[in-house]
Give the backbone structure.
Amino acid sequence: MEFQPIIDDIAASLAAERGAGRVATYIPALARVDPAQFGIALCTGDGQVFAAGDADVPFSIQSISKLFSLALAMRHVGDALWQRIGREPSGNPFNSLVQLEWEQGVPRNPFINAGAIAVADRLVSACPDARATLLAMVGSLCGEAVAFDEEVAASEAATGFRNIALANFMRSFGKIDNAVDAVLDLYFHQCSLAMSCVQLARATAFLCRDGAHPLDGSTVVSERQARRLNALMLTCGTYDAAGEFAFRIGLPCKSGVGGGIVAVVPDRLSLCVWSPGLDDTGNSLLGMKALEMFAARTGLSVF
Ligand code: GLU
């Protein structure tokens, strides 16, 4: 399939709508991003990369990082991870406290904030320097060094009252083992990772390769774990819009409030779209449109 003309066309068709949606403002450092940016990049299972628009501009990956931390925790903790975290869509906002009380401090899934904080706790226990381990894994996957944006991490730490509440709440149920500050330090830093669409398309290519590293073929996660990551992305990866994403796009996706969305076509390719303006569900407005166009143009879907 000729991917370059398809993504060029998608970028051109959405040019007039650049700037649509609302940039996340609850993290002050994100509010300053130019909303009129749009990028798309795709990486095939055999490593060919195609890109259009602002595909090389680094942005705050935010919740997309939950994918990498989960992959790392699957590797280090294995199935014991699921004693602390569920696998069901939440049907609640990504930062909700209510469900956590009903369910005794066990988050519904690893992609809501409480779930990712519980994953971070497992990583703090499993790795002597979890921040460095995560950074090394993501850098290795995309083939070049990546970095935390310390300004964004500090901005989140200064305003992340709800995440601080979620972590303390889980700790009160005995579901977090480590000091809340240490767990949140990892969580805020992973969210602050700055990466471009090209880097993210490369770094998620292991998900379209049954867990094999995109560059050296080593095992990032097992085939079964890669399948499970994709299943969780499809059912829980896009906040309260996972049903809509499955309906309109039909691919496992993970979004972040920085406006990025990664999507996987198992056994074929991974792709990343980015545009900072969000819709009411917190997903990138143009990103979702771009993915819908891509699925329609290519016929690629898991269904
Ligand atoms: N760092 C953000 C938060 O914890 C991540 C939100 C997101 O991208 O969904 O609120």
Remarks:
- The chain has a mean pLDDT of 96.
